Amino acid sequence: MDIILRYWSEREGKVAVRYFTSEFLGPTQAEKLLEGINRYRSSLDPKKLLQISMDGPTVNWKFLRIFQEDKSKEDPDAPKLINLGSCGLHVVHGSFQTGARETGWKMGAALRALWQVFHDSVS
Length: 123
Hints:
The chain is an alpha+beta fold. Helices cover about 50% and strands about 15% of the residues. The radius of gyration is 17 Å and the shape is globular. It starts with a strand and ends with a helix.
């Protein structure tokens, strides 16, 4: 499991992406993923955590559910995580396509605009 942080950097004036650490868990269960994440939660502000990305549905859906439950027990006022589905990239891509279609953008211009957004926001 890789832990990668994406955050707004005041210093850089853009969204920054940084590798944080890895946990070598092998084939695992949701509870083991939670244990792995919890080793690092004390060094992160849980109120600023917005979303957890995943790359496969079965274990990850359960992990997301028990992570949110654990977080809520710790701090009932902590904001809920944004759920982008089992693959955030597909959700964002579909949203972008819909937005481009509804605004009347031509897809060539829309793709150039999307490339610019990603180019400017990911380091």
